[in-house]
Amino acid sequence: MITLTISVMLLGVLCCYHTSQRAMITNTNKITYWISINHKKARTIGALLILISLSISIVDQGMGSGFFAAFVMLMSILSLVVLTAPLQFFKWTVLITLVVLSFIIEFLIF
Question: Which domain of life is it from (predicted)?
Fold first, then answer.
């Protein structure tokens, strides 16, 4: 569940990041091009994804610890995206590989 929460939150943060006017987006694909054209829809989708991950965290861990864990994950992901997005590290193949590897490790350990 933690991998799902982090993945959904990362997608929401990336969606909100690409709507920013200050974000330096050089290499565009179809998704980032759609996000750059449709600012309001993309911000709404990003905010909904972040709220979905918050609700998953609260359901999984309880009210207090779920909210705190989601807040810590959000701050960590925001820092990670702001630092690494200009380096073009977040490509879809890298994200999918990381998510699949995280799911495999999470299910093998727990």
Answer: Bacteria
| Residue 107 pLDDT | 84
Nearest Cα to Cα of residue 90 among 13, 21, 34, 5: 13
Instruction: Tokens for 3, please give them.
Output: 């991998």
Please give the structure tokens belonging to residue 74: 């959000």
Q: Give the number of other Cβ atoms within 10 Å of residue 29's Cβ.
A: 9
Question: Tokens at residue 94, please?
Answer: 């890298």
Q: Which domain holds residue 27?
A: 2-109
State mean pLDDT over 34-57.
91
One-letter amino acid of 63? M
Q: What total of structural domains would you count in the chain?
A: 1
Tokens representing residue 61 in the block: 């861990």
Percent of the chain with pLDDT over 70: 93
Helix (H/G/I), strand (E/B), else coil: 58: helix
pLDDT (0 to 100) of residue 25: 67
| Whether this model's pTM surpasses 0.90 | no
